[in-house]
Structures are given as C-alpha cells and as structure tokens.
Amino acid sequence: MTDIEISTPITRLLGIRVPVVQAGMSWASSSPALPLAVSGAGGLGVLAAGPMRTDDFIEALARLRESNRPFAVNLPLYRPGADEFIEHLVSHPVPIIVASQGGPKKHLARLREVGTRWLHVVSTVEHAEKAATAGVDGLVVVGGEAGGHPPADLVSTMVIVRAVRNALPDIPLVASGGFADGAGLAAALSLGADAAQFGTRFIASHESNVAPTYRQRIVDATVDDTDVVGRDLDVIRMLSNDFSKQMLELENTGAPLDDRKTAFLASTLKDAALHGDTIAGKVEAGQSAGLINTIEHAADIVDTIVAEYLDVVAHLPAAIRTTA
C-alpha cells in the first residue's frame, strides 16, 4: 500500500510512512532480511544486534544502508561488547537506535551528534521520565503482554502506555505488547501512542531468521498458551513447553534461587530460534501469538495491518449529540 501514509509524531521523527515498528528480536531480526522487508513496506525495520558477531553486524548494516530506507538498530546496552558496537555506530552512523536494558546517558550525546535518533525502551513511568530527562528522542513503552522480556510486574500495555503518556504528554511514543493487527494499531494510537511495535507477528513471517518449527508454534498458539518464567532472574514470556513447565514447578514450590538459576540457564532462545528446539528451548513470544494464524511475507503483514487499521477507523461509531 505504497500510496498510504499515516502521519504521526513518530512517523515524522523517523521518516517512515506508517506507524508500524518491527521489534528488535534476537535471532528473529538479527539478519537484514526482516528489517529490510519492513522498512521497504513503509514501517520501521529493526536489526537486533544482541546476539550478533561484530563482522556479521557490520555486514548487515551495510546491506541496510544500501536500501536508502530508514531502519533502526536495537542494542541491549548490557550486552558484552556493546561499547564496541557503539563505536562503530558513531563512526558509521545509522538513522535510529532503539536502546534497551541500560540507561542512555553514557552514549546518548555521541549518537545524537552524528545524527542518530535515540528511542529508549522502558516499562515503567519512572524509567520513562529518566530517559526523557536524559534527552532521548522517543520511547518504546512495553507492557506485560509482550514476549521476550516484559516488565516484571506485568502491568498491561493499556495501562502503562496511558500512564507514561499522562506523565509525558509531548514525547514521541511507541506502544509495545499485545499488538498483532490493524485493530491493535488503532488501539495503540487511541491510547496516546504514536506508533505500535509488533514483535510476535513478525516472527511468523517468511523473513524472520528462526527455525520453521518456531514459526509454526506461533501459528498454533492460543491466547493463553504463554508462560512467564524467570522470577528473580530474567523474566521472560514464552510459549508453554517442557522448559517453562519445569521453571514454573520450581518457582511455585519455592525452590532455591541457585536451583532455579541452573535450570533457567540450561535453556536458551538460541536453542529454539536457530536449532528449532521448541520443547526445551526458550520459545519467546507474546500473548498476541493467539491472534496469529498465518505465516506471511513481512511486507504483506505491514500492508495488512495498515488496511485493517483503516477499516477499523472507518467503522468506529460516530458520536451523536442528543438533546435534553
């Protein structure tokens, strides 16, 4: 739908055509294919740098730059080697960075100096206010429905987005967690966000860099087919499997932290995403998996979200003024 533009503060800030942001997902978008497809369709494609080796990271950035489309790099700031990646982004600037799992103050000024827009991932009002005070360009606000790393308190997207918007009425804001379609985009914008971020929906795309069994688990999932595990460790939301059931059993029976940590670290996202182990691997996904029934090309997903959004908005009930 190259003739459609939905203008919001986020689309104007980032130079994209529609307010559809693809989440930076380790392994799923740790290669150029998915972000290229999403950016090419008018949304914001995001390269997930978290698990990438330096050479692969540099090569992927070169391919993304060749597209002449806006794109972003998601960089977890706690990642070993994050400073090395930052140095490369300073000397070889990218349009946008989506920073997570760490504060922005250390690197923000240098990235801003080379023209990079900085979006910061937050899940509480307190962290949102700190990031805004530090001078970030915008926020990605994550609610409890999200896959991967939701907020530990699991406050819903509907509530946390409204709370952040009330606290910070002017900052560009992307809502994340629970969105899978055009109705979700309409809901995000009605909450006061300027775009919606879609993660699980894009895992179920042909361009996502995950094993076919992982994609199929997304399609087969129901809305209540996720577990939240890793209490006191590194909370993740994932599709229910033998690993998540083991973790829940340990947590619910009060197993010592060391025992839970051993079990938690024995399974990885890489096991599921690259090796296809959806039984014992960490199959990270959000509750929106229950709304996803097909595996599509990423560009078609963007187009469908936009078409559904337009249809939803067109059919919202009109207000009727009544007389006393």
Describe the overall structure:
This protein is of the alpha/beta class and 324 residues long. The protein folds into 2 domains: 221 residues, Aldolase class I (TIM Barrel), CATH 3.20.20; 62 residues, no CATH class. The chain is 40% helix and 14% strand. The chain contains 14 helices and 10 strands. It has an 8-stranded parallel β-sheet. Helix 6 links the parallel strand 5 and strand 6. The protein is globular. The N and C termini lie far apart (45 Å).
Which helices and strands occur, and which strands form pairs?
Blueprint: H1 9-14, E1 20-22, H2 33-40, E2 45-48, H3 54-66, E3 71-76, H4 82-91, E4 96-100, H5 108-113, E5 117-122, H6 125-134, E6 138-142, H7 157-167, E7 173-176, H8 182-190, E8 195-198, H9 200-203, H10 212-220, E9 226-229, E10 236-239, H11 242-252, H12 257-265, H13 269-273, H14 298-314
Parallel strand pairs: 1-8, 2-3, 3-4, 4-5, 5-6, 6-7, 7-8
Antiparallel strand pairs: 9-10
Helix pairs in contact: 8-14, 11-12
* Unreliable stretches covering 5 or more consecutive residues: none
Helix-residue proportion: 25-40%
- Our count of helices gives 14
What oligomeric state do these chains adopt?
single chain
Please state how the strands of the largest beta sheet are arranged side by side. Answer: 1-8-7-6-5-4-3-2
